[in-house]
Amino acid sequence: MEKILNAKQAKVPIWKSFDLIGDLVLLRAPISEVEISRNLLDEYKRIGEALLNELPYVKGVFLSLTPVMGEFRLRKVLHLAGTSRKWTYYREHGCVFKVDLESAYISPRLSYEHSRIAKLVRSGEVVVNMFSGVGGFSIVIAKMANPARVISIDKNPAAHRLLVENINLNSVEESVVPVLGDSVDVIMESLKGVADRVLLPLPSFSPRFYLAALEALGGEGVLHFYEFVELEKGERRGDLIPKAYKRVETVLRRVMDCAKAVLLGGRIVRSVGPRLYQVSLDVSIDKNLCG
Ligand SMILES: C[S@@+](CC[C@H](N)C(=O)[O-])C[C@H]1O[C@@H](n2cnc3c(N)ncnc32)[C@H](O)[C@@H]1O
């Protein structure tokens, strides 16, 4: 694998890191669709064929043509070799997920976070997942913990359909409640004060999302933020969590200044670009002073 994706041998720009999602491989390259000429395409296809030969469990190879983009966090992919089917079954933590490379967000790089959060959930909790995608957090929580409900909201109809399938595949119909819609609207209309824990797995620093998350909580609870933070010149990795929390706290105070927030912990989830990182922050909230 190393050899095949070695930049010199590959003869085309290609990144060494790739995602294995079920029986599909997703490669990345610093190049867009318009830049892929006939010659380059042939070389990318050759790399795809070489990967198929090297990895017998891989049935299809794709190249990501864009980063994840837009409200639904989707990417465009180019078929290189093997099956052209873009959907597959992906497994993690004893759960199985039907996923689609193009129509709904999927990243195996969140796998550790899925189980980390599941281990924090206490028996009987009501969890609201504001950006559930195909169910990564929600289904792992339902399988590993014993929540009363995991209300799982997503605005992308394709992600919602896959979530419903995944709930059935994993037999978690009793605890995972799929909701299609804008999470802010859903919470403000029908989920105020119901949650012990709210997940916000969509980087945004958005006051609108933060207010809805606070509204979803009962008197006390925990919010889990996933934000992108850049390291500026002179800053070190150790600065990322305090820097992210400062911004989170500022937005929280702006939307509900009576709520008391305490940072329980933070972790660097992954690097998402040069000096750009995704961090998770676990924040306890007490709204009892809000009257
Ligand atoms: C990063 S993905 C979620 C990843 C998912 N939690 C996981 O573990 O795989 C963000 C999701 O938020 C959804 N989304 C974006 N804006 C939304 C909104 N206002 N309300 C509900 N869902 C939204 C997108 O469709 C996308 O599926």
Task: Please render the helix and strand layout as text.
Blueprint: H1 7-10, E1 19-21, E2 24-28, H2 38-54, E3 60-64, E4 77-82, E5 87-92, E6 95-100, H3 111-120, E7 126-129, H4 136-144, E8 149-154, H5 157-169, E9 176-180, H6 183-190, E10 195-200, H7 207-216, E11 217-230, H8 240-255, E12 260-273, E13 276-286
Parallel strand pairs: 2-3, 7-8, 7-10, 8-9, 10-11
Antiparallel strand pairs: 1-2, 3-4, 5-6, 11-13, 12-13
The structure holds S-adenosylmethionine (SAM).
Verbal overview:
There is one protein chain. The protein has two domains: 7-85, Met-10+ protein-like domains (GMP Synthetase, Chain A, domain 3), CATH 3.30.300.110; 105-290, Rossmann fold. The chain is α/β, with parallel strands linked by helices. The protein is globular, with a radius of gyration of 20 Å. The protein has eight helices and 13 strands. Bound molecules: S-adenosylmethionine.
Structure described in brief:
With 291 residues, the protein is α/β, with parallel strands linked by helices.
Notable features of this structure?
2 domains; GMP Synthetase, Chain A, domain 3; Rossmann fold; 4-stranded mixed β-sheet; alpha/beta; 291 residues; 31% strand; 7-stranded mixed β-sheet; binds S-adenosylmethionine
SS field, number of helical segments: 8
Strand order of the largest sheet: 9-8-7-10-11-13-12
Q: What integer value in Å does the Rg equal? A: 20 Å
The CATH topology of the largest domain turns out to be Rossmann fold
Helix and strand content put the structural class at alpha/beta
Bin the strand percentage.
25-35%
